[in-house]
């Protein structure tokens, strides 16, 4: 049997430089997540990011919510099974779910009063808990325009400016199965809220949701204080969400994402979460 002998490759400074550049290029294309969900699926994922500021985000593909007999559902939760007391915490919510259901991730779903009752339009399983709040006033909720995160029974999710939703409700073109109203809107039809100041120094922990062009709903919790303009810019420029809504901030900002070790123990009012049914 004949054996072939090939000359050893000649390694020159040029070939070493080319190899180094290829290594850098490949490395630069890798995700910059500081922590990535280890149990995510094609339908949903959670991760933390370092740029443009540190934040945690969970996302769900809307196709996973409106397919036939979907294993995932987006829901709002407020009261305990007896209907007399609010759930208050993620832990209580987890403990009240049926054995066949798992809370994949969750977040506080808007602003509330001293009794942890919602202050804006709220619909849970087709039942209107509180009517649309179109009043003027102070505070973030009334930094108009505000809006509503809502979806119908088929799982079609939208974020709609409050007065626009009122018209749709009156015309019968919107039939919310779940809805939570908050404010202000962060991004409205591709534009950042006109009252946000790029030079503002009012930075707080903030959380919100956006319906994005890639068909996903993004739920974001900042891990450091940010201004409204910075937070809105994240949804508009980085996540590509033409409509996004501020949910709450400060001590009320809370996230449940056990796959990335985020399990806030705060009290809150209405909770929004993705449930997997097996």
Largest β-sheet summary? 8 strands, antiparallel
Distance from first to last alpha carbon: 61 Å
Secondary-structure element order, N to C: HEEEEHEEEEEHEEEEEHEEEE
Anisotropy-based shape? globular
The number of helical segments is 4
Helix content: 10-25%
Query: Could you tell me the strand content as a percent range?
Result: 25-35%
What structural class do you assign from the helix and strand content? alpha+beta
Supply Rg.
Answer: 23 Å
The count of domains is 1
Query: How would you state the average pLDDT, rounded?
Result: 88
Please provide the count of β strands.
Answer: 18
Q: How are the strands ordered across the major sheet? A: 1-2-3-14-13-15-11-12
Ranges where pLDDT stays below 50 over 5 or more residues in a row are: 1-9, 11-32
In words, what does this structure look like?
The structure is a single chain. The longest helix is centred in the first third of the chain and has 16 residues, at 13-28. The model is unreliable at 1-9 and 11-32 (pLDDT under 50). The protein has one domain (34-277). The protein is of the alpha+beta class. The strands form three sheets. Strands 1-2-3-14-13-15-11-12 form an eight-stranded antiparallel β-sheet, covered by helices on one side. Strands 4-18-5-16-17 form a five-stranded antiparallel β-sheet, covered by helices on one side. Strands 7-6-10-8-9 form a five-stranded antiparallel β-sheet. It has helices spanning 13-28, 90-96, 162-171, 228-238, and strands spanning 35-36, 44-49, 55-61, 72-77, 101-108, 122-124, 127-130, 147-151, 157-161, 178-182, 185-188, 191-192, 206-211, 216-222, 243-249, 255-257, 262-263, 271-277. It is globular.
């Amino acid at each position: 049997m004949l054996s072939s002998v090939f000359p050893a490759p000649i390694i020159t400074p040029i070939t070493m430089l080319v190899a180094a550049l290829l290594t850098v290029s490949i490395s630069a294309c890798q995700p910059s997540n500081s922590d990535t969900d280890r149990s995510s699926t094609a339908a949903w994922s959670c991760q933390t990011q370092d740029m443009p500021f540190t934040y945690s985000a969970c996302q769900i593909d809307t196709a996973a919510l409106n397919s036939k007999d979907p294993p995932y559902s987006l829901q709002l939760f407020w009261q305990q099974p007896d209907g007399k007391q609010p759930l208050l915490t993620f832990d209580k919510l987890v403990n009240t779910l049926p054995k066949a259901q798992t809370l994949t991730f969750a977040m506080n779903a808007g602003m509330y009063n001293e009794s942890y009752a919602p202050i804006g339009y709220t619909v849970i399983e087709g039942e209107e808990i509180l009517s649309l709040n179109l009043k003027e006033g102070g505070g973030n909720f009334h930094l108009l325009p505000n809006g509503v995160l809502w979806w119908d029974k088929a799982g079609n999710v939208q974020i709609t400016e409050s007065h626009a939703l009122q018209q749709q409700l009156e015309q019968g073109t919107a039939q919310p199965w779940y809805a939570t109203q908050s404010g202000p809107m962060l991004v409205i039809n591709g534009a950042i809220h006109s009252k946000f100041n790029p030079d503002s120094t009012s930075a707080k922990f903030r959380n919100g949701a956006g319906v994005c062009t890639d068909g996903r709903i993004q739920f974001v919790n900042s891990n450091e204080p940010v201004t409204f303009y910075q937070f809105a810019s994240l949804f508009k420029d980085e996540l590509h969400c033409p409509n996004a809504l501020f949910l709450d901030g400060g001590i009320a900002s809370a996230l449940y994402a056990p796959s990335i070790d985020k399990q806030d123990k705060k009290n809150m009012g209405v909770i929004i979460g993705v449930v997997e049914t097996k």
